[in-house]
């Protein structure tokens, strides 16, 4: 009787494990789909159009046009924040286009803060700001090998002063050629 229970238990266990398997082979790379969006932003022919991407396409243009466009190099931040503001997006997009069309070009994102707060805190905040800009550019197709994030904290103010106008100009990331 004990052997019958053991055999029955083994059979039930095998059936349960077989029902849980997905058939996906973990040793093989995952399949990649090359889906193309329709001009209306829908999900393809006959699709509902409900799924839309929040990613903005970037027109890479040509390098000569981009260099002539005088793309800005400074992205400003709010107090105690490393979230890229809407007014910084065109600067990031323009520089991302520039780097995407010239793979040998390199840039450094230098993070800065205003004078308020301790040295260590401001170095960490400046680093987070620089890394936020680098991540945004990588999402736009720039290679990670073209970018470097560094922080200067409050050590290199753009404007001297002890008021909100000066502090607002010092909370920034500067993109510089390397």
Backbone shape:
extended
Distance between the terminal alpha carbons, to the nearest Å? 78 Å
Order of helices and strands: HHEHEHEHE
Low-confidence stretches: 16-51
Q: What is the CATH-assigned architecture of the domain at 73-177?
A: 2-Layer Sandwich
The CATH H-level homologous superfamily of the domain at 73-177: OmpA-like domain
Number of helices, counting only DSSP H or I runs of 4 residues or more: 5
What percentage of amino acids are in beta strands? 5-15%
Instruction: Report the mean per-residue pLDDT as an integer.
Output: 77
Q: CATH topology of the domain at 73-177, which one?
A: 60s Ribosomal Protein L30, Chain: A
Summarize the structure.
This protein is 37% helix and 12% strand.
